[in-house]
Design goal:
Acyl carrier protein, Non-ribosomal Peptide Synthetase Peptidyl Carrier Protein, Chain A, mainly alpha, PP-bd_ACP, globular
Length: 78
Amino acid sequence: MKNKIRTILSEVSGLPESNFADEARDFTAAEIDSMEMMEVIVKIEDVFNTTIPESDIWKLTSIRRIERYLRDIGISSF
């Protein structure tokens, strides 16, 4: 799951996957702007076949947080 999230972040931002480490740091401040983040959310919804409520988007600021969120809503593996 982490690798797929990292790939999505890289595709949207145009930055190498190595820019997106697993540790819980906020990538939205440095690597991903708000428009790109919306594109990331749309791709995550498509890839993981889910819907993320707008009220939850602010929680998804690192690979670990995205992974934890997806597991919390019942997506256990990918």
